[in-house]
Amino acid sequence: MKNLEVPKIYSIKSTEKETLGKWFRLMTIGRAIDEKAPNYLKQAIGWSYHAPYAGHDGIQLAVGQYFEKNKDHIFLYYRDMLTALSSGLEPEEIILNGISKATDPSSGGRHMSNHFAKPEWNIHNVSSLTGNHTLHAVGVARAIKYYGEKAVAISSQGESSLSEGFVYEAINGADKEKLPVIFVIQDNGYGISVPKKDQTANRKVANNFTGFKNIRIIHCNGKDVFDSMNAMAEAKRFALDESLPVLLQANCIRIQSHSNSDKHELYRSETERNYVIEYDPLAKFRRLLIRYKRFTGEELHEIEESVKKEVKAAHRAALKAPDPDPSTIYDFVIPDPVKPKKYPEGVHNEKGEKIKLITALNETLKAEFRHNPDTFIWGQDMSNKDKGGIFNVSKGLQQEFGPKRVFNAPIAEDFIMGTANGMSRYNEKIRIVVEGAEFADYFWPAMEQYVDSSHDYWRSNGKFTPNVTIRLASGGYIGGGLYHSQNIEGALVSIPGVRIAYPSFADDAAGLLRTAIRSRGLTMFMEPKALYQDPRAATVVPDDFEVPFGKARIRREGSGLTVVTYGNTTHMCIEAAIELEKEGFSIEVIDLRSLIPLDREAIINSIKKTNKALVVHEDKVHGGFGGEIASIIMEDAFEWLDGPVRRVGSTFTPVGFHRILERAILPNTEKIVSAARDLLNY
Amino acid sequence: MSKTCIIYSFNSNKTRLVAEIIADAFGKGKIEKVNAETITEEQFLSFDNMILGVPTWFDGELPNYWSEFVPALEDLDLQGKTFAIFGLGDQEGYPENFVDGIGILAKLLEERGGRIVGETSTEGYTFESSAAVRDGKFLGLALDQENQARLTNDRVKKWVESLHNFIK
Q: What is the pLDDT of residues A580-639, one digit of tens each?
């Protein structure tokens, strides 16, 4: 986009005195707290992480002044103290966050200090991962545009964060979708100690995006109040009027070290350190106010004295605030899912025609889209004429619900995941389903967003939860080799904050998907793709079927051995049970259906009856979820065991492409029969 | 007789040194030295010819003292005034904004009727872009004490000679 002039709305001569006074007051408060913060650490009170903002004063003031609470959405980064104040946070709230009190509006002491937020105003709680929230801003802007609201999303971040691939994905997405996002790049020249010449070739990183079609690039002096205010005014006007993104790069200085764990004397010369002090933005603003006779020195002194008192009072009040209560650590890990009323155990006796697992998923998606008009789905290969999803699970959705609710995403898994998180921030009614990747094996680029989303609820002290269901076609038995056959749940189960469902039958797939979409929170929905068309997985599915999380289903009752399984291997375990029954053994097969939460009770009760346990899954034995199940059995059911807990799963190798290799690696009925027989004979 | 001054920051190091060389080149005491950090509108308007020293700060900005004078400058009528600008920059470290300060100041002065003299050739410099370049020439004297300090004296000498055509 060509360079356009930034109108001069604000200047030292024309801006009203009251406004200038308000700005000076905010800037003085900010600087007072910024300079006081290290004392809290020295006195062992807290604020162990503090990233001073001094030198970013102009742009931070401006961004906050142009944020309209409860309308716009803003994502601050860890250096944004003045932005937070300028957005409306009180000095006491800043200190409550700094010293991690239970009443900290950002996280109640759960998240790091200097991470300022107030989710109830749309000042979102963000990750420490630099630039991670850029995708959330794009996601929420998608909702702003969809619902036709006249508002913007603002993502504030340092210039080094633009080295992150996901920031590129975000800017590309905002440009492509023409979204009202203002990316504010606060350029102080350093990523901790790394100078910007080591980040990218252009000194002004925003210029890396000059070839983008829709985004407007604005540069400003982030140290100068008026230049920053004018730039931000124009950025917001443009984003609102044109519904297009803006990249606003503000040149700042970092007067202090990166944070209190950094020592900039190690890598910045004295000359440089003095040079930046000389351009102290607050001192410059103060000089201007006096030089142009807008305020007298006495008037400014009066403001400074009153700020001292205000900050002192805020400090005292914050010190009296309660500390976090250790008994609350399990609060807000994940919201309670909906509890099915008609199908409390997630079983049914419906008679009729069986449908395949893929059909059950497709019909459930359509039913849920009809049920809730605020449901959206996107992913790669999501919709192009008759193609709907890589395996056509979502076939026909776009035709019925339109391209604004059902659409393709770029080949950018992190973007898919991150914008889902962001869009769900818009309101609680929204439910998002994503195909997280073409195959589960390709989900890894999205892991930073997955991990971040997993702790949003906990981190925000229950103020925000991403209401997102991630669908992934998972597992092998299709001759797909690496990238088309792996199981990834073993790596995911150690991350708290996400429900993980892994159905084996059409009815459970439908019921769990419905529950996932209707529930608040994040659900990883693993689809055993080898079963999409498999007649063994076909069942009758009631139209309104729901399956609760954490309720296993006993697929076959028995008395001599408990087999705990899920996904593809459920069918093999049933076949193994049938085969071993011919030899006179009685085997109980438990289909977990959801791994998190886990139905411990079903497992333990079964073992009390059978006294032996075999855990079977397709994922690797080494590090697989079976290890956790086996440990639970040892801890809770040891007294009832008449033999060791055994595990069957794949080898500690990737899944090979050639069928011979695949067979050697993945579990099968024969391997299960053999392990079960050994255990039965133990 | 027209009145001439040279305006620069008395607190600066490199710019001050160059300013003193320039001032001396006109002959000791011939032109008045004025501190850019404290200059007033009245002072500014009291001269007919002004040589301005403006280093470029950060990625193409005016130093704070010039920046703080800009609001005053914006309201001045500079018709009949002649300006020659010299500026220090770093063409290797900041090749995208080499001596931008010269261009920023020149534009402000011209828009208010001021006449800019002392254009110089861009030959002998290696940079990518500069707000100081118009029609292939710098709008003043570009100096690079970081990378071409040994060329400074000669460049200043030639520039001052060329200014004699305008500033008597």
A: 999 999 999 999 999 999 999 999 999 999 999 999 999 999 999 999 999 999 999 999
**A374 and A285 assigned to the same domain:** no
Say if B41 is an interface residue toward chain A (CB within 8 Å).
Answer: no
Looking at the fold, whether A522 and A626 belong to one and the same domain comes out as no
Would you say residue B152 lies in a domain?
A: yes
In a domain, A9, yes or no: no
pLDDT below 70 — which residues of chain B?
1, 168
Instruction: List Cβ neighbours of A520 (8 Å cut-off, separation of 6 or more).
Output: A335, A336, A337, A428, A465, A467
Please report, for the domain that includes residue A656, its CATH number: 3.40.50.920
Instruction: Tell me, yes or no, whether A276 and A406 share the same domain.
Output: no
| pLDDT number for residue A604 | 98
Domain that holds residue A400: 357-537
Q: Which residue shows structure tokens 């050639």?
A: A658
CB atoms within 10 A of CB A466: 28
Based on the domain organization, do A377 and A504 belong to the same domain? Answer: yes
CB contact under 8 A, B57 and A279: yes
Q: Which of B59, B71, B96 sits opposite A12 (nearest CB)?
A: B71
In a domain, A345, yes or no: no
CB neighbours (10 Å) of residue A6? 19
Strands A499-501 and A522-528: parallel
Q: Which of A185, A228, A280, A291 to mutate to test the interface with B (most CBs of B within 10 A)?
A: A291
Task: Tell me the shortest Cα–Cα distance from B2 to chain A, in angstroms.
Answer: 29
Q: What is the pLDDT of residue B2?
A: 74
- Residue B101: inside a domain, yes or no? yes
Residues with Cβ within 8 Å of residue A440, at least 6 apart in sequence? A472, A473, A474, A475, A486, A487, A488, A526
ipTM value: 0.96
Contacts of B12 (CB under 8 A, 6+ apart): B53, B55, B63
CB contact at 8 A, A614 and A641: no
Taking an 8 Å cut-off on Cβ atoms, the answer to whether A203 and B57 are in contact is no
Nearest chain B residue to A278, by CA: B64
How many structural domains is chain A composed of?
3
The CATH number assigned to the domain holding B124 equals 3.40.50.360
Is B168 among the domain residues? Answer: no
Provide the number of structural domains found in chain B. Answer: 1
CATH number, residue A210: 3.40.50.970
A332 within a domain of the structure (yes/no): no
The per-residue DSSP string of A548-573 comes to -TT--EEEE--SSEEEEE-THHHHHH
Rg of chain A (C-alpha set)? 28
Give me the helix-helix angle, A17-42 and A297-320, nearest 10°. 40
Say yes or no: B94 contacts chain A, CB-CB below 8 A.
yes
Name every residue whose Cβ is closer than 8 Å to that of residue B38 and which is 6 or more positions away in sequence.
none
Domain-embedded: residue B48: yes
User: Which residue, among B12, B42, B59, B145, would best test binding to A if mutated, counting the most A CBs under 10 Å from its CB?
Assistant: B59
- Which residues have C-beta within 8 Å of that of residue B119, sequence separation ≥ 6? B137, B138, B139, B140
How far is it, in rounded angstroms, from Cα A74 to Cα A51? Answer: 19
Q: Are residues A441 and A469 in the same domain?
A: yes
Residues of chain A with pLDDT under 50: none
DSSP B77: -
Instruction: Flag whether residue B38 sits within 8 Å of chain A, measured between CB atoms.
Output: no
Question: Are A57 and A98 in the same domain?
Answer: yes
Q: Which residues of A are catalytic?
A: 484
- For A380-436, the pLDDT digits (tens) are 999 888 888 888 899 999 999 999 999 999 999 999 999 999 999 999 999 999 998
Same domain, yes or no, for A516 and A577?
Answer: no
Strand partners, A154: A74, A182
Mark which of A504, A537, A570 sits at the end of a domain: A537
Q: How far apart are CA A679 and CA A646, in angstroms?
A: 8
